[in-house]
Amino acid sequence: MGGIYGFYRQFSEIDPSMKTLVLALSNSDSPLKMKQMGEALTAEYLRNIGFDLAKPDRHIRRILGRKRLGCSDKETVPIYEAIDIVAEIACEMNKSTAEVDYILWSFCANGYGEICTVSAPKCEKCTAGKYCNCRG
Q1: What is the Cα 77 distance to its own chain's centre?
Q2: Count of CB atoms situated within 10 Å of the CB of 119
Q3: What is the number of other CB atoms lying within 10 angstroms of the CB of residue 36?
Q4: Cα distances (angstroms) measured from residue 71 to each of 48, 51, 68
Q5: Is the dihedral of CA 15, 23, 37, 8 positive or negative?
Q6: Displacement of CA 49 from its chain's centroid (Å)
Q7: Fewer CB near the last or first residue (10 Å), C or N of the chain?
Q8: What is the spatial distance between Cα 90 and Cα 35, in angstroms, rounded to a whole number?
Q9: Is 0.85 surpassed by the pTM of this model?
Q10: DSSP per-residue letters across 3-43
Q11: How far apart (Å, rounded) are the C-alpha atoms in residues 25 and 43?
């Protein structure tokens, strides 16, 4: 397969996590940098064209942090660590990374699940309470 997808596929063969490609497309020092695209939007773009990875936005990075699910010792998980954590969870659950990412994201996002929001978490409604460090 040629074209841009084929070019991106070469990166995935070297680094299946896709972090190398995310960095290449989002880093301002890279000749491949896409205008106005940081890591989260770049990951979402790659997911939308068929690559299975998480979008490490603020919701995902927060819910994975030490004050919520405790998947990291940091309150807000670093971007590339979040990509790895969601991929590990997906592997353990035998789900796609994109599916796990979407479930976690919708749990946190205003206008969607709105369970684990930053300002008003609804811990009493949360089905992940036994895994969570939040005492909202």
Answers
A1: 10
A2: 6
A3: 6
A4: 26, 23, 8
A5: negative
A6: 16
A7: N
A8: 30
A9: yes
A10: HHHHHHHHHHHH-TT-HHHHHHHH-TTSTTPPTT--HHHHH
A11: 9
Give the pLDDT band of residue 136 (cuts 50, 70, 90): low
Which amino acid makes up residue 51?
Answer: F
Ramachandran area for residue 110 (φ above 0: left; ψ -120 to 50: alpha; else beta): beta
From the list 102, 96, 66, the residue with the least C-alpha distance to 81 is 66
Which residue type does 1 have? M
User: Vertex 98, ends 81 and 14: CA angle to 5°?
Assistant: 60
Neighbouring C-beta atoms of residue 116, cutoff 10 Å:
25
| Residues ≥6 apart with Cβ < 8 Å to 124 | none
Q: Scanning the structure block, which residue is given the tokens 């089905």?
A: 127
Rounded Cα–Cα distance for residues 38 and 22 (Å): 9
pLDDT in tens, 55-97: 999 999 999 999 999 999 999 999 999 999 999 999 999 999 9
Phi then psi for 59, rounded to 5 degrees? Answer: -65, -50
Residue 116: pLDDT over 90? no
